[in-house]
Write a structure and sequence with these properties.
The chain is of the alpha/beta class. The chain is built from 13 helices and twelve strands. It has two domains: 114 residues, Rossmann fold (3-Layer(aba) Sandwich), CATH 3.40.50; 179 residues, Rossmann fold, CATH 3.40.50.720.
Length: 330
């Protein structure tokens, strides 16, 4: 267990703030210019015991998805905690009801990572359909190979039906990029979008979407309602030889996804965000046609700086007596 950061000695002029992870270059200065900041200067998440010790007496905490914010966390922080600023769009690590009961505000970072994440979804889709992972592993292995008419044949995307599960900002950005490939787009959301938001995409009930999508990109946020939404039964509704790209942990049952690849029901799959990170199911690791990325959806310098900057802006706004810039509500 590492030594926890010392509890601050607050002053009215400098409310104490905890940052639980090393941020992108240039971000932390936005906080240190105004507040007494303790930063866990590491790329690794804080040990739970250290985190609970470090939050004591803080007015604000900048968290990541690895930090569980629950009653225990809030009790450890004490009654002075004003805001938890999550360095993510998602907030499944935060007990919103417990925060609301204690009057603790919660913010997140929507919007600023849309472009990077949509680009990553397409990078994974292209890698999966054209079998780039298999090809690179072959070359790096040093095994002999030769070009042949049937060598590592993939799928073409032009004209192929694309389904988007979760048509929020990221889903809409994924759908817009499909125009370049002349792909008809359908989507499923809790509600049908206005025509200007759907931008030509067709809303379908979930099971109809699955049955008509040769390519499916999953961007729906994780919640109690969406956890393992794509289980073995629903994955079996996809056309045989379909491709699944998962950008959200927990919405796709990873073991069921591996089984669908193993059986040949799916041509390929790609996953960027895993339910029990950093663990990846052995069944998925064993699949040659699974493209696996270590949670890189928002991993560009510009985007991570924007995410960190927005989390900082939320803290500054609340500690300055205002409302969060991008609040999360229960």
């Amino acid at each position: 267990m590492s030594t926890p950061p010392p509890a601050p000695s607050p002053s009215p002029a400098q409310p104490p703030v905890l940052v639980t992870r090393r941020l992108a270059p240039g971000v932390i200065e936005g906080l240190t210019a105004h507040h007494a900041v303790t930063c866990h200067d590491s790329d690794q998440a804080m040990d739970r015991a250290d985190l609970l010790a470090a939050v004591r007496g803080r007015r604000a905490v900048l968290t990541t998805l690895d930090d569980r914010v629950d009653g225990e966390f809030l009790d450890a922080a004490g009654p002075g905690l004003a805001i938890v600023a999550n360095h993510a769009v998602g907030h499944h690590n935060i007990d919103l009801a417990a925060c609301a009961e204690r009057g603790v505000l919660v913010s997140h970072t929507p919007g600023v990572l849309t472009t990077a994440t949509a680009d990553m979804a397409w990078a994974l889709l292209l890698a999966a359909t054209r079998r780039l992972g298999e090809g690179e592993r072959l070359l790096r292995s040093g095994r002999p190979w030769t070009w042949a008419p049937n060598f590592l044949l993939g799928l073409e995307l032009a004209g192929t039906p694309l389904g988007v599960l979760g048509m929020g900002r990221i889903g809409q950005a994924v759908a817009r990029r499909a125009r370049a490939f002349d792909m008809p787009v359908s989507y499923h959301n809790r509600r049908e979008l206005a025509p200007e938001q759907a931008d030509g995409a067709t809303w379908r009930p979930l099971e109809e979407l699955l049955a008509t999508s040769t390519v499916l990109v999953v961007t729906a946020p994780l919640s109690a309602a969406t956890r393992h939404l794509l289980d073995a039964r629903r994955l079996a509704l996809l056309p045989r030889g379909a491709v699944v790209v998962s950008m959200t942990a927990g919405v796709v049952d990873e073991e069921a996804l591996a089984a669908a690849l193993e059986s040949g029901a799916l041509f390929a799959a790609a996953v960027d965000n895993f339910e029990h990170e950093p663990a990846v199911p052995a069944a998925l690791l064993a699949q040659e046609r699974a493209v696996l990325a270590p949670h890189l959806g928002s991993a560009t310098v510009r985007t991570r700086q924007a995410m960190g900057g927005l989390a900082v802006d939320n803290i500054l706004a609340v500690l300055g007596g205002g409302a969060p810039v991008t609040p999360v509500t229960a």
